[in-house]
Amino acid sequence: MEAPRNAQQRKTDTLARLTSDVDAWIATADADGNAYLLPLSFFWDGADVIISTPRSSVTGRNLSRGGRVRVGVGQLRDVTVIDGTPEPVEDEQTMDAYAAKHSWDPRRESGDYAWFRIIPDRVQAWREVNELAGRTLMRDGKWLA
Amino acid sequence: MEAPRNAQQRKTDTLARLTSDVDAWIATADADGNAYLLPLSFFWDGADVIISTPRSSVTGRNLSRGGRVRVGVGQLRDVTVIDGTPEPVEDEQTMDAYAAKHSWDPRRESGDYAWFRIIPDRVQAWREVNELAGRTLMRDGKWLA
Fold this sequence. Notes:
Two copies of one chain form a homodimer.
Chain A: H1 7-20, E1 23-29, E2 35-44, E3 49-54, H2 58-65, E4 69-75, E5 78-88, H3 92-102, E6 113-126, E7 136-139, E8 142-143
Antiparallel strand pairs in A: 1-2, 1-4, 2-3, 3-6, 4-5, 5-6, 6-7, 7-8
């Protein structure tokens, strides 16, 4: 086990991963409290996690409902977890940036895709148990480091 | 992108991963439909996913509630997703097997740990989009291959 990173290093590593990683685990729930989980391509616009998924899919319906969402990024022993709330994406600019990152544009698909912006209010990052302390990097939407 | 695997190969790969992998993403939800997600050490006893977590943690409380649970195993481009329902684990034999796998016994921790058995009714496995077809390996608790 490596020595625990300090807060600044964790933030740097986390932002690098959010920028370069392709897929994230998106956990949502329905109104009855049944959990759903799927890896989806995501785009980090510097503030929010942007994803696109068919409007009628389970994830699409759960996100449209607006309950709390949790996003897992990275490896199981190099984890970033983001808590946030979803909002629909309406602006073409964000859709363009998403398409540029993934070389794939949901607007060109035959299915009815929706975009969602997950607005983080808490970000945590840790590798192993010795990094559980100090894992909170953002609280109430504010970066701590 | 590699050629898609057949059902038998996917099942073989999935069972190998469930046996050898250490951590899994556990997605749960509260009664109000807010999602939660955490990587946890797990033990596959050949039929169910066994996890242990503090009884009073968010995951512990969500699992005690009994709503649907979703488990993500593997890499983001080599995914196994398990849908199931949680039940408390009472037998010492399962706790022993969990402790043996992880060289860590929650019974020896000072916190009040609970064990849960997630009983799968659906198992899906895929690597990339060309494996989305045929990704369902178990349906209604029955392996299809």
